[in-house]
TrEMBL record:
This is Citrate synthase. NCBIfam families: cit_synth_I (TIGR01798), PRK05614.1 (NF004126). It catalyses: oxaloacetate + acetyl-CoA + H2O = citrate + CoA + H(+). Pathway: Carbohydrate metabolism; tricarboxylic acid cycle; isocitrate from oxaloacetate: step 1/2. GO terms for molecular function: citrate synthase activity. Belongs to the citrate synthase family. PROSITE patterns: CITRATE_SYNTHASE (PS00480). Keywords: Acyltransferase, Transferase, Tricarboxylic acid cycle. CDD domains: EcCS_like.
Amino acid sequence: MADNQATLTVDGKDYQLPITEGTLGPSVIEVAAFQKAGYWTYDPGFMATAPVESKITFIDGGKGELLHRGYPIDQLANNAEYLEVAYALIHGDLPNAEQKADFYEKIRQHTGVHDQLRKFFEGFRRDAHPMAIMVGVVGALSAFYHENLDVSNEEHREITAIRLIAKMPTLAAMSYKYSKGEPFMYPRNDFNYAENFLYMMFATPADVDYKTNDVITRAMDKIFTLHADHEQNASTSTVRLAGSTGANPYACIAAGIAALWGPSHGGANEAVLEMLDEIGSVENVPEFMEKVKSREVKLMGFGHRVYKNFDPRAQVMKETCDEVLDALGINDPKLELAMALEKIALEDPFFVERNLYPNVDFYSGIILKAIGIPTSMFTVIFALARTSGWISHWLEMHSAPFKIGRPRQLYTGETHRDFVKVEDRK
Ligand code: SDX
């Protein structure tokens, strides 16, 4: 219900626009009255537009605060397992012991994929980018779960969420194995979620006694949590818009993967490592920074539409980076280079004036590289983790009546004109 009202005066007429308060963050002004006045609101890039109401994630960009169902991200990352966070995103609270055991068992039961799905991989070149494979193969899941999937049925929606969260690690690992020409590894359900993923990524059929490093497993799980959800970002908004047409949820998630791939979004983690490779050494940082300031290039892994202060995920990621490199005895010069970049950027007026701080993608690549994950798989890891966020927003949308998303536009094209025969055209 509207708490109070704003008045819009246009063409000498006043329109009362209801203002609705949330539990946290800015209130919203409902703009439907603009239609009556014969106007649209205009907000390229949705800088100040809330197309939905949500209870899942709250971000305070000024304070650098990120809450999932009210729980601060640093507390979740340092204390919860990713699947507990996924449960909270979907159901609203962290699971109690019984709910946790039940959810974990359901996930375990659905980590496998239909054997026919293997054939989809063979259509890709060996050097295909794994994100291209993931868009294709996750979209293909809609062919395996369509006829008897009724999105208006809550039980069907619940099992879809379980299937997607359970299968993404399997499909992600398959996209990696395919690129290496190694056999796919079947999921092992005696491993936990992160262990299972690392097993499917790095084990071969000969590794009968495969063991993971606890530090790496914990770091992998923490990275999943740090990428789980992030309010109405571009890929989540894509999933919601696709879902608003009633589309197959597997196809909606594939649309989210496609949107995430862009270097301005989830593709930035891969771009950070490419940038660090290009810079090469700390000596080259000043010259690179001049290219950034002249807008030849962007400082990848820096800046954020919402965070105008530090990204709390980047802080946890940096701590994890130190832990992993220390535990593995790795002295990665890229970390030193990244820290030099961060130091310079945090002191340089160009970045300070634009509120450019490291975001979630700045340090993640260094950890993933230390774990042995190739750069091309970084965004796949992001997509794997974000699936719990995407599907929780899809579930939230379907949990109440919703309208198809249908934005309008500011039209600046040709005014009305009649058809001209080709012989009369200039
Ligand atoms: C993610 O939305 C989410 O929540 C996304 C995400 C999630 O979890 O879902 O957090 C994940 O996508 C993180 C962001 C990863 N992307 C990058 O690291 C790529 C580099 N960052 C930029 O492309 C940029 O910062 C964006 C896209 C992230 C945000 O862009 P905005 O909000 O549209 O800001 P802008 O482009 O209008 O920039 C404002 C100013 C501009 O300078 P002026 O033209 O006004 O002088 O800041 C400059 C920009 O040129 N700027 C940068 C910069 N980012 C912005 N300059 C250099 N390097 C950068 N990285």
